Amino acid sequence: MKIALFGFGTVGKGAYDILMAREDMHVKYVLDKRELPEVTESIVTSNLDQILSDPEVETVIELIGGLHPAYEFVKAALEAGKNVVSANKLLISLHYEELVGLAREKGVSFRFTAAAGGGIPWLVNLQRAARLTRLSSVSGIMNGTTNYILDAMQTLEQDFDVALAEAQRLGFAEADPSSDIDGLDTRHKTTLSANVAFGVALDDEKVDAFGIRYVKKCDIDAAVAKGYCLKLIGRACRVGEGDAVAAFVEPTMVPAETPAGNIHGCDNIITFEGEYIGKTHFVGAGAGRYPTGYAVAQDVLDIAEGKAGLYNEGMAAQSIANESECHPYYVRGDLSDPFFAALEKTPFGDGFKTEPATVRAMHDAAARTLAAGKDIFIAGFMM
C-alpha cells in the first residue's frame, strides 16, 4: 500500500518508522513545510495537490494536529477518494458527523483509533462490543498528563504548580497545558467514545468539562483521608428509559481499591459496560511516539486487509442530557452561589460532600463562580 503522511512530529515519526519497517507498506509522501533530511525513502513535499492527484496513494495519515489546516486537508483527501487515518481528536470530535458522512458517501475508510486511548486498543474494541450488545456507559482516565499531576500531588505530596512544572520538564505536558488541565483533551476523547459506543454524534462543545486547574493539595488530602484517589474522569452514559445520553468530564473521587484508583503516572484506564459483558477495562500508555504511532499503523493495516470501514455505519445528532445524570459532589471554595447555598452539605476535609446534584446544575454553578473571579473546585463521586 502506498501512503501519504501529513505531519512529521513526534507521532508522525513513530508511525513512519513502524510502517516503513514493513515490506507491504510504503510512505510515498511526507507532507511538511520543513526540510526533513532524515526522510530518505519518501518524497517530502508541501504540495497537497501532488498527493491527492496521485492514483498510487490509497491512504492518507493526518498527524498535523490542531483544527486548521488539518480539517481542510482531511476533507480534501476524503473528497479525492482516499482512505484517511487520523489521531486528531480535536478535529474529529468537532467535525465527526460531517467527516464520517463524507467517508460513507465516497465509500472510503475513515479511522481514528489513535485519537482516544493512544496505544490502548480502545475504540476498535468499543466498536466490536457496540455491534453486539447495548452499551450503558464509557468512562475512564483518558489523559496521561493530568493523571501524572494528580498522582504526583498524592504520592510525592507536591503542590499543583510543582507537579505541573515537573510534567512539563519531563515532556508529559505542553508549554501551554490548557487543553489537558482544563479537561478539553479528555472532553474530545469522551465525545468520540460516546459516538462510537452509542451510535450518535454529540456536540463536543456542549459536553460539560471541569478540569484540574483549580485543584489544591487540601483536595488531595481530603480524598486520601476518606479512602479515595482524585482522578480526572471522562464519562458518557445512557440516562432514563430511552436513548438519552449524558456526557461530562470532571475530577472524581475514585475509591482507592478500584482499578482506576491504582492507575499511576501517565497511564490511562478506559472502561465500557454492557448488558452481556459487564465492565471491561483497558489499561495502557495513553500517549507517546510509538504507542500512538502503533495505533495509527494498526488502522492502516486494517484498511489494507479490507477489515475497516467506519466506526459508525449509522448515527444521529443527539442532545446531551446532563440534567438527568445525578450524583454527590465534593465542593470547596466560595459557595455563595444560590445553587451551592441551597444544597445539603456535610464536612469533607476543607470542603463539603453534597447531596446528589445534577451534572448540568453543578457545572453551571461552578462556571458562574469562576466567571465572578471567585475560587471553586468541584469533584464528583464515582458511582
Description:
- This protein has 383 residues and is α/β, with parallel strands linked by helices.
- It folds into two domains: 2-111, NAD(P)-binding Rossmann-like Domain (Rossmann fold, 3-Layer(aba) Sandwich); 122-285 and 318-381, Dihydrodipicolinate Reductase, domain 2, CATH 3.30.360.
- The chain is 36% helix and 27% strand.
- The chain has 14 helices and 20 strands.
- The protein has helices at 10-20, 48-52, 70-79, 89-94, 96-106, 122-130, 144-155, 160-169, 178-181, 184-198, 217-225, 289-304, 338-342, 359-371; strands at 2-6, 26-31, 43-45, 57-62, 83-86, 110-111, 135-141, 200-202, 208-209, 228-238, 245-255, 267-274, 278-285, 316-318, 326-327, 329-333, 345-348, 351-354, 357-358, 376-381.
- Strands 7, 9, 10, 11, 12, 13, 16, 17, 18 and 20 form a ten-stranded mixed sheet that branches. The chain has a six-stranded parallel sheet with strand order 3-2-1-4-5-6, with helices on both faces. The protein has a two-stranded parallel ribbon with strand order 8-14.
- Strand 10 and strand 11 (245-255) form a beta hairpin.
- Helix 3 packs parallel to helix 5 (96-106) and helix 6 packs parallel to helix 10 (184-198).
- The longest helix is centred in the last third of the chain and has 16 residues, at 289-304.
- The model has no long low-confidence stretch (mean pLDDT 95).
